[in-house]
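Problem 12. The chain below contains 221 residues. Write out its predicted structure in token notation.
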Amino acid sequence: MPGCTKNSLLPLHLLKRHPISMEAHFEFVLVLTYAFPKSVLIPLLPPGLVLDCFEDFGFLAIAFVQTRGMRPRHLPSFLGQDFFLAGHRIFVRYQTHAGRNLRGLRILRSDADRANMVFFGNLLTHYAYHLCRAKVTRTSDKLDLVIKSDDGRSDVQLTADLSTTPPDYLPDGSPFATIRDALKFAGPLPFTFDYEEETSSIVRIEGVRQNWHPRSVKVDV
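Solution.
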């Protein structure tokens, strides 16, 4: 490896390039998507990423996920662990050197309710994990979440209506005219991006999902 002797350690920024493929079942995913004027979100983007816009708006998503059986891919399911995760992301686009235009999410921060997930997540990924406490109450009619983060910067309390929300529901003040346009910013997307300062490059993480059928729900935050 250029610049390294055989006795040197692997540079930390190389270790953080998501070296392990992970697999998990998502019991539920709830995404809050907020529209902002483009001028608010553009300063949060690193070189190489551009804002994914709808008209004059950019979008910030906060995803709440209950995972089951998360484990390195190819390991047996009994070795998996359950986590509650929250992720703060901006919808962006990235153009590869070959000219391919990729749509994805730029990482801002993540929260997890297990200390080992925070430790190994920050060691091996760019997800910027913080420890949180999460209380989840889910019935057939509603989902209640209370999240307390270690630094107090991502505390959330909400209730989502899972039963009576009409399929074409849009909240008051939505910039979208149709639910079809809105669901384009529901996430998750195939790619997640972050900036690697040591090499002035973009780290790209690709995910594959199955049985993903998003729908709109009313949420009291």
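Discussion. The CA atoms of residues 138 and 148 lie 18 Å apart. Students who got a different answer should revisit the alignment rule from Section 12.3.
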